[in-house]
């Protein structure tokens, strides 16, 4: 067996979801929303399934979706992308894999920010890359020039940047984006930008892509997700956008990962990306209301909640909440004794983990949130 995979455990998301099922617990661990998603997008997927071709679509994606992605980012983020610079993938994780496998040569160093989405490290290692970690600290989770300098060396090739950041629910500031852009330009680095949460932002915030920073247009790979935008996580429709020098090589890696994504789902994603601003504002308002409901409930129970600017998540600071347990021990107690599944943030680190922060998903109906709060009134 390949030791990289043979020695990996089950992802923390699947492990905690299994524990939730076994214990009859309310699952606030894995990040998927309740509900069906937008009915008109579902209807378009059904129409395309019955009325359009179900044979292999073009490897790089249906032209209608590649055009829709380019048009969407022009309208929402001011990016000037050609459809030829868009590659459709079977989810954002496949886009990450294709980009990493195409751009990382064995021995290249890759800067990763901890805490991080758990797929990053195995993909970098499988490509033969050497991870170099920047550890972010709660509650601000800020990126600093000093931390970047400590992680970098002459062998550094690439930065993997997640913004908004799962699991911290933070967004990079304008100063942090400029810092990263300057750093990439000075050292001739490529940035893979995982921006799947770009529309799930709150309190009047708007997402700005690192690709829009001066000097970054030709050295960024921007990754997006229809699953996150339309609350349809099971669809696994994603895309990446990059200048031809990058995208042409990434396409060659993509063709031997999934080759193509179901065409009816591509058609539906293209339709959805053209929805008017009211949809996106309404989606954000709904999630913000759920965030505020869970935040108020936890605060009323004496938990210290960290700010949540984006994503489906918010976090509890156990130390500040007066809970003398590490995050893993608390999550074990919570699912077994209280009947609520959560995620220990230490699971998102490869080394030097922060161990007093626990992540909860608020993308749930009121009844689910209220039921979890009722159970969490019992504290260890």
Task: Report the C-alpha radius of gyration, rounded.
Answer: 20 Å
Shape: globular
Strand line-up across the major sheet: 2-8-7-6-5-3-4
Compressed to H and E, one letter per element, the order equals HHEHHEHEHEHEHEEHEHHHEEHEEEH
Mean pLDDT: 96
The CATH H-level homologous superfamily of the largest domain: Type I PLP-dependent aspartate aminotransferase-like (Major domain)
Structural class: alpha/beta
End-to-end separation in angstroms reads 41 Å
CATH architectural category of the largest domain: 3-Layer(aba) Sandwich
- Uncertain segments are none
Helix content: 40-55%
DSSP strand content: 15-25%
Question: Any overview of this molecule?
Answer:
The chain has 380 residues and is an alpha/beta fold. The chain folds into 2 domains: 3-30 and 278-376, Aspartate Aminotransferase, domain 1 (Alpha-Beta Complex); 39-275, Aspartate Aminotransferase, domain 2 (3-Layer(aba) Sandwich), CATH 3.40.640.10. It has helices at residues 3-6, 12-23, 39-51, 63-77, 92-103, 120-126, 145-151, 174-187, 226-229, 244-254, 263-273, 277-300, 327-338, 366-376, and strands spanning 26-27, 86-89, 109-114, 130-135, 156-162, 190-194, 220-225, 238-242, 304-305, 313-317, 340-341, 343-344, 357-361. The protein has a 7-stranded mixed sheet, sandwiched between helices. A 4-stranded antiparallel sheet has the order 9-10-13-12. Helix 8 links the parallel strand 5 (156-162) and strand 6 (190-194). Helix 5 crosses helix 10. The longest helix is centred in the C-terminal third of the chain and has 24 residues, at 277-300. The radius of gyration is 20 Å and the shape is globular.
